[in-house]
Amino acid sequence: MKIKVSVPATSANIGSGFDALGLAVTLYNTVTFEESDHLDISAADGTRIPRGETNLVYRSAKGLFDKVGKTMPPLKLVQTNAIPMARGLGSSSACIIAGLLGANRMLGDVLNTQELLTLATSIEGHPDNVAPALLGGLTSSVFEDGVVYSVKRDVDESLCFAAIVPDYKLLTEAARAALPKEVTHKDAVLMPYKIADAKVHEDPVGVSGALIEGRHYYDAYVLGAKCGGVYALVASGSISAAPSISGKKITGTGTIRYTLDGSDPRYSDSAKDYVAETELTAEDGCQIRAFATEESKYPSPVVAG
Questions:
Q1: Environment class of residue 101 by beta-carbon count within 10 Å: exposed (0-12), middle (13-18) or buried (19+)?
Q2: d(CA 127, CA 132)
Q3: 25: Cβ–Cβ under 8 A, 6 or more apart, which residues?
Q4: Going by fewer Cβ within 10 Å, which terminus of the chain is more open, N or C?
């Protein structure tokens, strides 16, 4: 008997749902299972994969046989690997779920879905990828008293997803090792000033209005750098007009804050409010930086003169 299993790629750690939220997408690995007189593992698409007992599909299948006290016969496994390996699309979870589903079917479906999910989590270490790989859709999972519980929600079919796949591998173990053991409350909370620390893109291609690009730090630890993270579309009129600097004068509307020492006027202790048409007392060669705010509008970009 030949058994064929298809398992979707997944994206996990969605938003604030670290180790909890995951999403299945329409990109699939397939594995065929057949009993054989010896272990035979191959890739139909030529992908380099382990061909012995270290193969993750094989190990996962054997784990299920061991759990129910059965001896697994030699298998012929043929894998087709559309999911890029070590690129953040759940390739290892796909292998685990494929191995468990194939083995479970060989044994007459001895484990139910929750038991399969709990076993998959014990192999993977966390449920955020294996849950959507097994259940599909968008899943939220929790591990409690040795059992994994998941809630699934269907994803609107009008949504389309695109994956940006890097030309280098980043193993989950390495990415997780880069995470700090603790995150302070200050860094974990997306505070307003972090959103205000923004670049404004006026009428970018394909966007009607302006794009506010902010930065926050919560997800920036994986690669050790501050990265773009908060985006909001707003109408052009919702952004304060940037002031202009000419010589030692600043012109603009709203409340204008400025510094003379090159520091960022949004956060600097040396920042002062500018009074219209006042000539600044500033030494030649100093850098004037300013930004404007108006009620019910986003702050303007910081300008320098």
A1: buried
A2: 9
A3: 8, 9, 10, 11, 89, 161, 163
A4: N
Pick from 69, 65, 67, 95: which is nearest to 80 by CA? 95
Phi, psi of 157 (to 5 degrees): -70, -15
Q: What is the distance between the alpha carbons of residues 68 and 47, in angstroms, rounded to a whole number?
A: 32
Phi/psi for 271 (5° steps) reads -70, 145
For residue 116, name the pLDDT band (cuts at 50, 70, 90). very high
Residues near 15 by Cβ (< 8 Å), separated by ≥ 6?
21
Question: Which residue type, as a one-letter code, is found at position 42?
Answer: S
DSSP per position, 37-57:
SS-EEEETT------STT-HH
Type of residue found at 214: G
CA 34, 35, 39 angle in degrees (round to 5)? Answer: 100
Euclidean distance between CA atoms 29 and 15, whole angstroms: 25
Residue 181: CB atoms within 10 A of its CB come to: 4
SS3 4: strand
Lowest mean pLDDT across 223-227, 263-267, 283-287: 223-227
Does residue 94 sit in helix, strand or coil? helix
pLDDT of residue 218: 37
Name, in order, each residue with C-beta under 8 angstroms of 137's C-beta and a sequence gap of 6 or more: 23, 24, 152, 153, 154, 155
Q: How far is residue 87's CA from residue 165's CA, in Å, rounded to a whole number?
A: 6
Plot region of 91 (φ>0 → left; ψ -120 to 50 → alpha; else → beta): alpha
Alpha helices in the chain (DSSP H): 56-67, 91-106, 113-124, 127-135, 172-177, 185-188, 192-196
User: 2-11, 209-218, 252-261: lowest mean pLDDT where?
Assistant: 209-218
